[in-house]
What we know:
2 strands; Four Helix Bundle (Hemerythrin (Met), subunit A); elongated; mainly alpha; 2% strand
Amino acid sequence: MAKAKPIQGLDAQAPTGNNARIIARVRLEEMYQWERYVDSPSHERELHNLRIAAKRLRYTLEIFEDVLPEACKPAIKELERIQEELGALHDSDVKIALLQRCLSSQNSGAPYKPTILEAKQQHRESNTVGELSKKDEQSDVVGPLSEARFNYFAPRGGMGANAAEFALPPELLAVLLDPLSTPTAQQSRGLGQLLLKYQQSREEQYFNFRQYWHQLQARDFRHQLLSILDT
């Protein structure tokens, strides 16, 4: 995940609104540094960084909402949608990567052994719930983990009505994350079908995000927001 840019030029003696505008401009430019990857669906990491940058800008506008122009409020909703579209895309990327690794280990004859650092990183980036136990923290690999202990792919906002659409079943997670487990041929066929489903879903998610992004740019979202901040 890309680090946030440091903010220069803040004045502790200036009105809060002035400093808020400086921060918002930096966060806006930070978001647009990833724009060149919008039309590159295979740049998963860069698209994830775009999502994080959009979230930082959105939170900036929300935190300083009382001292920024009223016209900033619609931008918060638009940034929220960008964040949600890219969040769904990233969730699919994590699922696809895990399934591909599992199937690859089956084809090579060696079980997939995700390191604890890999599991933690995917856990953080997916905004999932749950935590690793101390025993897992001290081990070299992640053992069988139930949904209650480590909810790898819980939907954002918790387990809602559509949870089944996003969360992998605990028994499947146990197979995928068990370092001593190699899927059977039948299991591999099922995992292959699930992988295809997530790949198709990702294509739709990417299309929706890209379409919405270009709609915003057709309205010149960047310069609109800059103009509002300059008022």
